[in-house]
Write a structure and sequence with these properties.
17% strand; globular; mainly beta; two-stranded antiparallel ribbon; 1 helix; Alpha-Beta Plaits; two-stranded antiparallel sheet
Amino acid sequence: MQLTGLSQTEGNPVIAVQINLDKNFAFLEFRSIDETSAAMAFDGIVFQGQSLKIRRPRDYQAMPGGDLPNMNVPGVVSTVVTDSPFKIFIGGLPNYLNDDQ
């Protein structure tokens, strides 16, 4: 997250990790709400040949009036988009496409 400019300060933004190898998932705890929200920008990226699914816990309740932070990461398209009547999903796009195409 430091390399992409998404961490607030120096050091590791992750303070705790719980990994379940049997079910292939992990829980990460971040040091701040903003860094937790910024980590959502990595949803859908391919890591070691697997597409990551990054989600909030099922019991997560957003703070009232909280806006989504600007989570622009070069080369990563976030799946965190505010719901609206204008929102659609298009999947299976090749990685070589750029914004102009």
